[in-house]
Amino acid sequence: MRARLLLAFAALSLVTACSFQNRNEREAEKITNAVIANDLRPVQNDIGKGIAITRVQVAEWSDELNAQGKLLSLKESSEGCAPGWHCFVAKFQKHTYVERMRYDENGKVVNWNFHMAPQS
Q1: Closest CA relative to residue 39, chosen from 74, 67, 65
Q2: Model confidence over 64-88: pLDDT tens digits?
Q3: Which residues of 63-72 are buried (b: 16+ CB within 10 A; e: fewer)?
């Protein structure tokens, strides 16, 4: 009985931990994971029409992010974020990155980019 209770608590904790991400964080994490996997198909319907992203670009982005180790967390941050953009701190095993994302009037992603955060 105690083992079941602990298992249920662990499962509930896992589900609620995921629910603390807002819509923007979930979208940015989906895109980040798609880039890491070198496959934008899982997010192709989230990207605005007419946005051209080449396979070469995705492969280069994938190589860079894969070199950083596992994605540990991704949280939205307003620090230094320009109006109209959503900015995120993406922590990987080796380095921290800053991601920026912008939506169009239909809620589709029209710009997403990243760069390594300055090391302190």
Answers
A1: 65
A2: 999 999 999 999 999 999 999 999 9
A3: eebeebeebe
Contacts 24+ apart (CB under 8 A), 41-50: 43/109, 46/108, 46/109, 47/108, 47/109, 47/110, 48/104, 48/106, 48/108, 48/109, 48/110, 49/108
CA distance linking residue 25 with residue 77, whole number of Å:
10
